[in-house]
Amino acid sequence: MEKEKVTLPKFDTEKYLKEGDAIYAQRAEVEKVADKISKDGYSNIFLLGIGGTWAEFAPIKYAIEKYSDVDVYLVNAAELNVLKHRKLTKDSIVITASASGDTKEIVEAVKWIVADGIQVMAFTKSTGPLGQVAQTVIEANVTTGMCEYSYLLFNLLALRLLYNRGDFPDYELFADQMKGIFKNLVDIREQFDPKAEEIAKKYYSEPYNIWVGSGALWGETYLFSMCILEEMQWVRTKSVTSPEFFHGTLELVEKDVPVFLVKGEDECRALDTRVETFCKKITDNLIVFDTAEYALDGIDDKFRALVSPLIATSLLTERLAAHYETYTKHNLNYRRYYRQFEY
């Protein structure tokens, strides 16, 4: 039986799959960089970001800590510029990213980090200010804003580093299976899209929203609530981790307060379930995004925790954001303050 053709509003499936192929085609380039880093040696790994980039690196920190005992630090560039870090030395490897290529705080940090003789590997434009400073650059010539492109490249780099250390022997299998990830993510979008529209229509004008996540999905939860809802939609949110939810935020849950739970598939799922159980008793507006509900054809279950951020960003940062924009009538690209003047 022929599958019914589904049209996703504000989404170019053909372009997306073509760009996904281009991202996957960079696998060899990423592996070459990882192999050189491994050969040169390093004592620890610094993931350097700010805002959305910091959030995108959060699941990478989770993955490294899950499989390896190598020290990994996820640092905010603005804080690093003023606080520095005693563990950041000439033996460190710094991994950073900037889609624009000119993120102010990251460029400032990388300039003095490189001047101190520390190696920096950046996912960015080779011609931008960051690309001109970092010693190693990987450039992805695809549409910005699709976080799963970044997640795949970051995962390939980090897990290849762990493979070279003997910490992630399944790397080749994982990387081979990622060839089909973007087709899977289109199917997931199609499955979720009607629900995304219902959620946006019902909750777009709520005065206050609570967003909860944990583990590998905390970064994506924070990214959506901060980058999309706050920055791009001017929707007031509170984002909190599942373990921290019970130390403050729970007192703000009432019958009519929406609680959005991004439920993961890793070790922290039990913490998410605890939040879910509590909120079912209190609010009539609990919305659960459970990545376990979505199939991944051709990808082993043991990799689902690693891939779950790609599922979550397909649901939230892409589909749900598109429908919020429709109902708020607020263009996702419009800003009042961000990058509009010096501050």
UniProtKB/TrEMBL annotation:
Residues 33-172 form the SIS domain. SUPFAM superfamilies: SIS domain. InterPro entries: Fructosamine_deglycase_FrlB, SIS_dom, SIS_dom_sf. This is Fructoselysine-6-phosphate deglycase. It comes from Breznakia pachnodae. The lineage of its organism: Bacteria, Bacillati, Bacillota, Erysipelotrichia, Erysipelotrichales.
